[in-house]
Amino acid sequence: MSDSDVPGAQLTKMLAGEPPEVVELVLRLRAVIRDAHPDLDEKVNPMWHGIAYRHRKAGYVCGLFPRGNGVNVGFEHGADHPDPLGRLVGKGRTRDVRVEVGAGPEEDDVVVDYLDLAVDLAIDRAEDKRRRR
Known about the structure:
Order of helices and strands: HHEEEEEEH
Strand order of the largest sheet: 1-2-3-4-6-5
Radius of gyration: 14 Å
Structural class: alpha+beta
Shape: globular
Number of strands: 6
Helix content: 25-40%
CATH class: Alpha Beta
Strand content: 25-35%
Largest sheet: 6 strands, antiparallel
Distance between the termini: 31 Å
């Protein structure tokens, strides 16, 4: 996936009102996700004020959402998602891993761990759905 897959103008516009340190964190986490799972399609979603990540076979998996002094990494089926590090927050179907400004590189590893689980879960869910048809 190239940078042209996410129009720079859309991303810049979405992040325009965010503090520079939040913008930096969004861009760092974006790079982490793209490096860990280059097979995910990426789209700026201005209505959500976030960047959505979609798997070709499994659909929407997660998103990056700048909120306050950090970024929520939201997982579509977070309620069903394993939480081995006790980091998922929120109630309902979607749950997030919260990453605060100033978080070190160890947080990148946490995001990748949860992303790996989310992608596996989404693929399994999609395959189960296909088998039931």
